[in-house]
Specification:
The structure holds three protein chains of three kinds. Chain A has helices at residues 2-5, 8-19, 26-31, 39-52, 56-74, 88-99, 107-121, 145-151, 167-171, 173-176, 215-224, 239-268, 284-296, 301-315, 338-350, 374-380, 394-399, 423-432, 447-459; strands spanning 156-158, 163-165. By secondary structure, chain A is mainly α. Chain A has three domains: 2-74, no CATH class; 88-320, no CATH class; 338-371 and 406-462, Cytochrome c-like domain (Cytochrome Bc1 Complex, Chain D, domain 2). In chain A, strands 1-2 form a two-stranded antiparallel sheet. By secondary structure, chain B is mainly α. Chain B folds into two domains: 9-153, no CATH class; 170-327. In chain B, helix 1 (12-36) packs antiparallel against helix 3 (67-96). Chain C has a single domain, classed as Cupredoxins -  blue copper proteins (Immunoglobulin-like, Sandwich), CATH 2.60.40.420. By secondary structure, chain C is mainly beta. Chain C is built from four helices and 19 strands. In chain C, strand 10 and strand 11 (181-187) form a beta hairpin. Classes of the chains: A mainly alpha, B mainly alpha, C mainly beta. Chains A and B meet through helix 2, helix 5, strand 1 and helix 9 of A and helix 3, helix 4, helix 9 and helix 11 of B.
Chain lengths: 463, 327, 265
């Protein structure tokens, strides 16, 4: 590819040649394969220039600039070598959960898991996906490698800027992090924190708990953003780029889930679940070979984790979209029955449906319960942690966990609904609950009751 | 010193320097657009553009091409324009200000343009955030130096500093120069902080960023108060040609702080504790839209403008107090 | 080709299962009692920050139930679980468990605590989430492979089924009442037990032979280096036990040092 042909050594020489900057570092020149300037020639250039410039000051200044340019260029390296960071918080949690406060896992397991993960999913620059060997498998259609390649890697363009690469790093990674861990450089300044995809949990979707969101759900969030949060809307993103990013989000979520499962396996079993897996982890080539072994060996734990656990849930999500029944008259504010239905909803809100336990209603004083979201609860529920005492979880913060922050129940007196503001969106939020949050699913309420609640929720900002 | 008299004063170096300043400022704005829209890597090679010599790249493909390419390639073309002006400046200064240190200054400017261009190139080739940072800081520094050149080569400077031999110095008052220089320096520090905020590497730990944000905010508040205080302190400085930059700064600094807040909201949304207000709760960050791009870039460009006004003020005051520079 | 192999293995496994059940006709039992040796600090009182009027109306304080010991030192809520290594075949299951699987396991909310604190349910078995309180709760179950979060209206009951076997127990919480905590284990096979208030446990009708068991307690995870019968548990709290046909393997009193349970660093 064009981009790849532009390797660093060549360009350093080009920079030097173009501007005739003083070349002093001969090591650099010998190391750059196409560098045409020899050491002697560079020195000669330097001396002639010295003759031209009379002022000592200028000469020193320019030489300084030249040196600086060279220093910058000298560290030149191709941009490979970037690996996904391991899920250290998960590992620490499992150790504390299973071995108590003092024991650490042998580092050989870390290497094993890292090797398997790199073989299955590649690196942030060169993504791979553990497609099963069978071409007809439904797992094959989950993501496209072309889309992953467009999203992965550093930001770049090809075909005269018409095709953009590195989309994830361009649009997402500053918040969501390179590995989709929700701990990108700016994560701490946002509230709520950016989503950590690795738990495979998503809030606003048309599917029930434990069933991943559909592509349309993800597109909707990216296209329209989430009001009142750090999640921007991308109204101008071309559809093909959107598709590539959605695939990459799925990839990061699947990757994260598989990694967690592997850790669970390794920390639970007395035997060596990954020891028997053959393959070397040295280069991209053997990683590919290793991946083929891993996905095609039905006895390996990898095969179980991938094809019996994580991937099937992603494949079946379209079939498991929750049906939204037709709304009865009265749900929309313009309906004649709106006020009476909202009145029924209010009764439920204050009573049976438990809403008032968390959501404020002006004029009704009740203690509102606040709690943490699942991304925090996932590790603060570890024995030995007191979430109000930072000293008890320093090691988790050090491992990369973001400091616990209480999740505020939505203020329903404002007409702002993060998961979409149509009646059917509100129906889904109440019916299925909101994954990753304390908001529960309302299986004990029937559809009429849910629609009444929707009407009441819609009526609250109108008061 | 070989001092030419008023009749031999040539305005050409000043004119070219002014043009260079204008081009530099547009260049800074364009560079800001490149970063705001993350278009820096829209052209993978350098100094060529998609294999073409930069100047031979088809106009149609550039002008009517994708936005990222338009911005990045445009930034490069503007960069060469700045280079041409810098070369012209060296030639004219050598001819019109012989025997002074002005030609040396012009050469320094040219060297900086070249350095800055190289930085831009290396930034693209290596895709390195540290260099992007340096590139983003050297730009405004260069611009401030060009402004300084403009001031020194100006008619005002000749009349009031070179020939006026310190007339008006008594109006400046003691201590003001130190304050003005401190504030100029602090404005530059603030610009460096802003650059660090803009060019974050994806592998950076999230721990550092909030500190950077708080420092940037603290310095902003400090600068705003100090600028107003300085404006009050120098209220009797009228009629010396020093006053207008301070007047302007006292307004611009406020605009800049407001733009800073807007920039934050446009990139990261309102702070959560405002979400009982509908405006904040319903706000959706409009990523890579024209409004986001222009507002965020305006904040960055305004930083360079502040640097420019302080430079005019400081260079003029230094001239009045300490005699002409670079003669 | 490899797919074929995979298919053959799966089909083979499925086909061999009923065969194995009928072939197995020797069954034994396992029992024992966990006892804490040494002094434990008294259980901490939970902070009641919501619905305090209802939750504490009986006047009893709500205590932390992570470690509960009776007056004789019997340790409640130790999980005794069959350990299936990667290469191990699934165990044959005694026919008596078929019927038991159809009975739902009940997890009740009583006076703002979960009753029982620890539950074991088989994958696919009905779990009846009950709310005996006059206030609403939610029951949020998060294990490694399962999740449920249901709104429990006052006096209501919701039936769910957790589908995925877990390696270790997961958490049950009520988000409305943050102090409410419980543990839940989901397994395909029925061979797991939780110690009762007196520290005793019993697993009936295990297939005779040598089996690996793991011992786990919420506070410290796997119970490692404790003496079980005539051996010491390993690094994953595991021990190999031999079940003899028609006999009960009584592990007797299994002692756990109180220091190991305080769990503080």
């Amino acid at each position: 590819m064009f981009v790849e042909s532009l390797k660093c050594g060549f360009n350093v020489a080009e920079v030097v040649k173009t501007f005739g900057i003083f070349v002093i570092d001969s090591k650099l020149l010998t190391s750059s394969a196409t560098g045409k300037l020899s050491h002697d020639k560079a020195l000669a250039m330097q001396s002639t220039k010295t003759m031209t410039f009379k002022k000592k000051l200028i000469r020193k200044f320019c030489a300084g600039l030249g040196m600086l340019s060279l220093l910058i260029a000298a560290g030149c390296r191709p941009s490979t070598g970037l690996e996904f960071p391991a899920n250290e918080v998960e590992l620490l949690k499992l150790q504390r959960h299973k071995y108590g406060p003092n024991e650490e896992l042998d580092s050989k397991y870390k290497d094993q898991v890292a090797g398997v993960m790199a073989a299955l999913f590649g690196t942030p620059d060169e993504p791979a996906f553990p497609f099963p060997a069978n071409d007809a498998s439904p797992f094959r259609a989950l993501v496209s490698l072309g889309n992953l390649n467009a999203s992965a890697g550093p930001v770049a363009s090809v075909k005269d800027g018409k095709e953009n690469l590195g989309l994830y790093r361009k649009h997402c990674a500053n918040c969501h992090g390179l590995a989709g861990d929700g701990a990108g450089p700016v994560a701490l300044t946002l509230n709520p924190y950016p989503r950590d995809f690795r738990l495979g949990k998503f809030k606003f979707k048309s599917t029930p708990l434990r069933v991943p969101p559909t592509d349309e759900d993800l597109v909707r969030v990216i296209r329209h953003g989430i009001p009142g949060t750090g999640m921007p809307a991308f109204p101008n993103m071309p559809p093909d780029e959107m598709e590539a990013i959605v695939d990459y989000v799925k990839y990061l979520a699947i990757r994260g889930e598989v990694e967690r499962r592997l850790w669970d396996e390794v920390t639970s079993l007395a035997g060596e679940p990954l020891a028997g897996i053959p393959g070397s982890l040295d280069t991209a080539q053997t990683r590919e070979a290793f991946r083929k072994v891993l996905v095609s060996d039905p006895t390996s734990p990898i095969s179980d984790i991938l094809f019996d656990d994580v991937l099937p849930r992603w494949v079946e999500r379209d079939a498991r979209v929750s049906a939204v029944p037709t709304a009865p008259a009265g749900v929309e504010p313009n309906d004649a029955e709106f006020n009476s239905l909202a009145g029924v909803g209010k009764e439920l809100f204050l009573g049976k449906a438990n809403c008032i336990q968390c959501h404020e209603l002006p004029g009704h004083s009740a203690t509102q319960a606040v709690n943490y979201d699942d991304w925090t609860n996932d590790w603060v529920k570890t024995p030995g942690i007191d979430v109000e005492d930072k000293r008890t979880f320093r090691e988790f913060l050090k491992a990369g966990a973001l400091p616990p922050r209480l999740l505020r129940p939505r203020n329903l007196t404002l007409p702002v609904y993060r998961g979409g503001d149509e009646s059917r969106d509100l129906y889904l939020r109440i019916k299925n609950g909101i994954e990753g949050t304390p908001m529960p699913s309302s299986v004990s309420l029937n559809d009429e009751e849910i629609w009444a609640l929707v009407a009441f929720v819609r009526s609250m900002p109108l008061k | 010193m070989n001092q030419p008299n008023s009749l031999s004063f040539c305005r050409w170096p000043n004119r070219i320097a002014r043009w260079l300043a204008v081009v530099s400022y547009v260049l800074i704005f364009a560079g800001g657009l490149v970063t705001t829209t993350a278009a820096g890597m829209a052209v993978p090679d350098w100094p060529n553009t998609y294999g073409y010599n930069m100047f031979l790249y088809p106009f149609y493909d550039w002008f009517f091409g994708p936005w990222d390419l338009f911005v990045e390639h445009g930034h490069r073309l503007l960069g060469t324009l700045a280079g041409i002006f810098a070369i012209l400046l060296v030639i004219v200064t050598f001819r019109k200000f012989p025997g002074t240190r002005m030609p040396a200054f012009a050469i320094v400017l040219l060297a900086l343009v070249i350095f800055q261009g190289t930085l831009g190139g290396v930034r693209v080739l290596r895709d390195d955030r540290t260099i992007a940072n340096l590139h983003g800081v050297v730009g405004p520094a260069f611009f401030a130096l060009v402004v300084a050149f403009c001031v020194i080569s100006s008619r005002w400077y000749r009349r009031n500093v070179v020939e006026g031999s310190g007339a008006g110095a008594e109006q400046v008052g003691t201590g003001n120069l130190t304050w003005a220089q401190t504030l100029l320096g602090l404005s530059f520090v603030q610009l460096v902080l802003g650059s660090l905020l803009r060019h974050i590497d994806v592998m950076t730990s999230p721990r550092g960023f909030p500190h950077l944000v708080y420092t940037h905010i603290a310095v902003a508040v400090l600068l705003m108060l100090a600028t107003w205080w300085y404006w009050w302190r120098t209220r009797r400085m009228s009629g010396t040609g020093l006053r207008w930059p301070v007047n302007l700064l006292s307004i611009v600094i406020f605009v800049q702080v407001a733009l800073g807040l807007i920039t934050w909201v446009m990139k990261y949304g309102f702070p959560w504790w405002l979400d009982h207000y509908l405006v904040a709760a319903s706000f959706v960050i409009p990523d890579k839209t024209m409004q986001q791009t222009l507002l965020v870039t305006a904040h960055m460009a305004m930083g360079s403008a502040i640097l420019c006004f302080w430079t005019v003020h400081v260079v003029r005051m230094r001239g009045l107090l300490k005699g002409p520079a670079l003669q | 080709m490899l797919v074929l192999v995979r298919l053959v293995v799966v089909v083979g496994l499925v086909a061999s299962m009923p065969l194995a059940v009928s072939a197995q006709d020797s069954w034994g039992h396992l029992s024992g009692r966990f006892v804490v040796k040494g002094e434990l600090p008294p259980a901490a009182q939970k902070k009641i920050d919501n619905d305090a009027a209802y939750c504490t109306r009986s006047g009893k304080p709500i205590l932390d139930e992570t470690v509960v010991v009776d007056e004789n030192g019997g340790l409640r809520d130790v999980f005794v679980m069959l350990l299936l290594e990667r290469d191990a075949a699934p165990p044959t299951i005694h026919p008596s468990y078929e019927e038991k699987k159809n009975e739902p396991v009940v997890l009740d909310n009583v006076e703002c605590r979960f009753e029982p604190y620890a539950v074991f349910v088989r994958a696919g078995q009905k779990l009846s989430l009950k709310n005996s309180d006059e206030i609403g709760h939610n029951c949020h179950i998060i294990t490694f492979g399962n999740e449920e979060n249901v709104n429990l209206v006052a006096g209501g009951t919701v039936e769910v089924a957790l589908q995925k076997a877990d390696r270790v127990p997961g958490n049950v919480v009520c988000d409305i009442h943050k102090w409410m905590e419980g543990v839940i284990l989901v397994r395909d096979e029925p061979y797991a037990a939780i110690t009762a208030a007196d520290g005793t446990f019993r697993i009936d009708n295990l297939p005779a032979g040598t089996l690996k068991f793991q011992f786990w307690h919420k506070k410290v995870g796997f119970l490692r280096e404790i003496t079980v019968g005539n051996q010491v548990t390993g690094r994953r709290g595991e021990a190999e036990l031999t079940i003899v046909d028609g006999e009960t393997l009584d592990l007797g009193t299994i002692e756990i040092d109180a220091k190991a349970l305080t769990g503080d660093k």
